[in-house]
Specification:
With 78 residues, the chain is mainly β. It has one domain. Helix content is 0%, strand content 32%. It contains no helices and three strands. Strands 2-1-3 form a three-stranded antiparallel beta sheet, with no helix packed on it. The relative contact order is 0.31.
């Protein structure tokens, strides 16, 4: 088994969310996080295996905006 910790860090270096789990051989696990206070900058998802075997990672990031909160289309100048 492998003990895994996920930590989401915002663009200012603050921890936004975290989670942990224990993975057995050939098991998978999903960790979801939602935040309403998205600040500009480079965000980091840190995954630490503190005990156990090799762990393969697959990440999917989805950013969803509230309906009507996006700016208008900005076409490229000709």
């Amino acid at each position: 088994n492998s003990d895994v910790t996920w930590t989401l860090i915002d663009g200012d270096g603050n921890e936004v969310d975290s989670g942990q789990g224990n993975l057995g051989n050939q098991q998978s696990q999903t960790w979801d996080s939602t935040t309403m206070n998205v600040i500009p900058g480079d965000w980091t998802l840190s995954v630490e295996v503190t005990q156990g075997d090799d762990v393969s990672l697959s990440n999917e990031v989805t950013i969803t905006y509230v309906e009507g909160s996006e700016s208008g289309i900005n076409p490229r100048p000709v």
